[in-house]
Design goal:
The chain is an alpha+beta fold. It contains six helices and three strands.
Length: 110
């Protein structure tokens, strides 16, 4: 099925090579795997699950936010992140495939 994308959506879409670079880090992939459920997650939860320090998570979440994959909301001392509902559908399809492949890898490793 061919998707029709508006000119504005094409303008704001992250270039595919840049997206691949963003997805190439294990910490960012782990964060996306958690956030891709569409729910909001506290950075403290991401840090705990991924075993990352606050500064490391902040750097990686900044990269995901700059790529337009996630959005954030400040909640007192913490920041909460979730999947960007306005992500370009083609980019979303790529991330969907990567997250699905990660789930298969986790099942096979278990």
């Amino acid at each position: 099925m061919l998707m029709r994308i508006s000119a504005k959506a094409v303008e704001r879409m992250i270039p595919i090579p840049d997206l691949m670079g963003t997805l190439s880090d294990p910490t960012r992939l782990g964060a996306l795997r958690l956030l891709w459920d569409g729910r909001e997650h506290c950075v403290c939860e991401l840090m705990q699950v991924l075993g990352a320090t606050q500064s490391r998570m902040s750097r990686h979440m900044g990269a995901l936010k700059a790529a337009g994959l996630v959005i954030d909301r400040r909640d007192a001392q913490w920041v909460r992140y979730r999947r960007n509902p306005d992500v370009d559908p083609r980019v979303g399809a790529i991330v969907d495939a990567v997250v699905a492949a990660m789930a298969v890898d986790r099942k096979e490793a278990a």
